[in-house]
Amino acid sequence: FFPRIQVKKKKPPSQVILMGLDSAGKTTLLTRLLTGQVMMDTSPTVGFNVGSFDVDKRTSLTVWDVGGQKSMRPNWRFYLDECKALVFMVDSSDPSRMPEAQKALKKVLSEERLRDIPLMVLANKVDQPGAMTVQEISNQLGLSNYPHLRWEIQACSALKGIGLRQAFTSVAKLIKKN
C-alpha cells in the first residue's frame, strides 16, 4: 500500500501576444526573457518571433512578438486566436509616436476576440532621458476609455532587464483571474 501523492502538473503555456509600434523594444524584451542576454542589434521583425518561458513552477507563457511596422499591423488580427493576454509595448522615450501608438492600440482592441482579454501596457525605455511617466502614457493612450477592460501599465527597460519579470508575473495573474 502506497500513499497517493498529488503532483501539481504544470498547465500548458498560455498564449500572450506582444504588440506595439516598430522600435518599441519587443524583440529585445523577448530575447531578454528567453536568454537573459542583451540584444544590441535588432532588425525590424518581419512576421513574428516566439518563445516560451516559466513564470513560476506551475505557470508558463508562450510569447508571440509580432512585427510592428505599419505594413505588418493589418496582420496583427491573425495572431489573436488563442490569445490569453495582450501585451502592448510603447517607447516611453518617444512622445511623438504616442498618437500613432494610441491609434494602433485602439484598432487592435476593437477586435471581438479581445473582448475579455486582459491588457498589459509596457512603458519601455524608462531609463532614457526625458522618458514619459506611466501616467502620461496612460493618458496619451486613452486607457481610461476602456472601462470594460482589465488593464495594467508598467514601466520597464528591456535593454537593462528592469521590470520584465514583474510585468510577466502580473500578466500571468491577469490570465488566472480571467
Number of separate domains? 1
What is the overall pLDDT average? 91
Q: Report the CATH superfamily.
A: P-loop containing nucleotide triphosphate hydrolases
Q: Helicity range of the residues?
A: 10-25%
Oligomer: single chain
Sheet-strand content, in percent, reads: 15-25%
Q: Counting H and I runs of at least 4 residues, what is the number of helices?
A: 4
Binding site for Mg(2+): 27, 45
GO molecular function, one term: GTP binding
Organism: Hippocampus comes
Keywords: GTP-binding, Magnesium, Metal-binding, Nucleotide-binding
Summarize the structure.
The chain is built from 4 helices and 6 strands; from the N terminus they run E-H-E-E-E-H-E-H-E-H. The protein is α/β, with parallel strands linked by helices.
Task: Walk me through this protein's architecture.
- It is a single chain.
- The protein has 178 residues and is an alpha/beta fold.
- It has one domain (14-34, 54-177): Rossmann fold.
- The chain has four helices and six strands; from the N terminus they run βαβββαβαβα.
- Strands 2-3-1-4-5-6 form a six-stranded mixed sheet, sandwiched between helices.
- The longest helix has 14 residues, at 164-177.
- The N and C termini lie far apart (40 Å).
- The model has no long low-confidence stretch (mean pLDDT 91).
- Mg(2+) binds at residues 27, 45.
- InterPro entries: P-loop_NTPase, Small_GTP-bd, Small_GTPase_ARF, Small_GTPase_ARF/SAR.
- GTP binds at residues 20-27, 68, 124-127.
- Keywords: GTP-binding, Magnesium, Metal-binding, Nucleotide-binding.
- This is ADP-ribosylation factor-like protein 6.
